[in-house]
Amino acid sequence: MIKIFRALSLMLFFVVALQVHLHAQKVRIAVAANAQGLIKKLQLDFKKRTGIETEAIIGASGKLTTQIMNGAPYEVFLSADTEFPDKLYAGGYGLQKPKLYALGSLIICGSVSGDLKNWQSLLVNERVKKIAIANPKTAPYGRAAQESLSFFKLHEQVSPKLVFGESISQVNTYLQTGVVDMGFTTEAFLYENVDQSKLKWARVDPKSYSRIEQGVILLKYSKQRGGKNALKFYEYLSSAPAKKIISANGYHLPD
Question: Is 32 helix (H, G, I), strand (E, B) or coil?
Answer without folding.
Answer: strand
